[in-house]
């Protein structure tokens, strides 16, 4: 039996191909693709869902319920395509599922921590949250964890209970990014938040890759030296 395999013609089989002629330029490389798991955390009613939905749809709906949702969204960022998986976590569930907190932290590549500028208790709850995340994620050899702190409801300045300066200082002291936004008023602020987080996540992933590369070089060099030592014994 003869198997007939269709021949795929390559450039060198084309009849008008001239040896040495310029080959067609390769197609331009597509954008670098990167996946980013993000968890949005904070006290109840600070605007976590409003901020997330504003970023995803550019809209402010007003009422969001208290549901847990994971959204997927693509963002183009300086030649990269970031595929976000955003986990909007209701505060009520957070309390009920303390044990799954660790799992959530390990799943995430980055965090958006939200407080309301009108609610001091929501601001005060952020420092311990950052500490828990850092303790779980940042081992001695790991890079800093990407976190953006967001003061939301900036439009309610007449009810302000936390100054911008306090927010900025908290972020600075915890090595986090900081933005004050109004999810109700504009799309730009939430967009900046997720942009900044994406940048930090890209940096962290790159640093981790470099670190792993360096660690494997160090490992192979030490393996060679160890072998030499045993050979010479
Ligand atoms: N004025 C104002 N209200 C907001 C803003 N963001 C959210 N809200 C309102 O605050 C309430 C709680 O928002 P929600 O997103 O459900 O909070 P979550 O519990 O943190 O997810 C809702 O009534 C929203 O309409 C904002 O930037 N400004
Ligand atoms: Mg919500």
From TrEMBL:
Protein's UniProt keywords contain GTP-binding: yes
What molecular function terms (GO) are annotated for this protein? Answer: G protein activity; GTP binding
Per UniProt, which keywords does this protein have? GTP-binding, Hydrolase, Nucleotide-binding
Q: Which InterPro entries match?
A: P-loop_NTPase (IPR027417), Ras-related_GTPase (IPR051065), Small_GTP-bd (IPR005225), Small_GTPase (IPR001806)
Q: Which reaction does it catalyse?
A: GTP + H2O = GDP + phosphate + H(+)
Question: Annotated region Disordered: where?
Answer: 1-30
Q: Which PROSITE patterns match?
A: RAB (PS51419), RAS (PS51421)
Q: What is its EC number?
A: 3.6.5.2
Q: Which family does it belong to?
A: Belongs to the small GTPase superfamily. Ras family.
Q: Which PANTHER family match?
A: RAS-LIKE FAMILY MEMBER 11
Q: What protein does this entry describe?
A: small monomeric GTPase
């Amino acid at each position: 039996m003869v198997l007939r395999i269709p021949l795929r013609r390559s450039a060198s089989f084309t009849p008008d191909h001239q040896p040495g002629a310029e080959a067609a330029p390769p197609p331009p490389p597509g954008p670098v693709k990167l996946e980013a798991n993000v968890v949005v955390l904070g006290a109840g009613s600070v605007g976590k869902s409003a901020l997330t939905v504003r970023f995803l749809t550019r809209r402010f709906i007003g009422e969001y319920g208290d549901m847990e949702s994971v959204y997927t969204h693509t963002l183009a960022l300086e030649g990269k395509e970031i595929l976000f998986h955003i986990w909007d976590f209701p505060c009520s569930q957070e309390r009920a599922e303390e044990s799954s907190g660790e799992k959530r932290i390990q799943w995430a590549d980055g965090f958006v921590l939200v407080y309301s500028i009108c609610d001091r208790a929501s601001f005060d709850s952020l420092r311990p949250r950052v500490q828990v995340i850092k303790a779980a994620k940042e081992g001695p050899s790991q890079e800093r964890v990407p976190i953006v702190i967001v003061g939301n409801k900036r439009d309610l300045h007449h009810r302000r209970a936390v100054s911008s300066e306090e927010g900025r200082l908290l972020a600075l002291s915890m090595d986090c990014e900081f933005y004050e936004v109004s999810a109700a008023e504009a799309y730009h602020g939430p967009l900046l938040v997720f942009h900044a987080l994406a940048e930090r996540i890209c940096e962290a992933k790159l640093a981790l890759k470099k670190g792993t590369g360096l660690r494997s070089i160090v490992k192979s060099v030490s393996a060679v030296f160890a072998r030499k030592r045993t050979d010479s014994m």
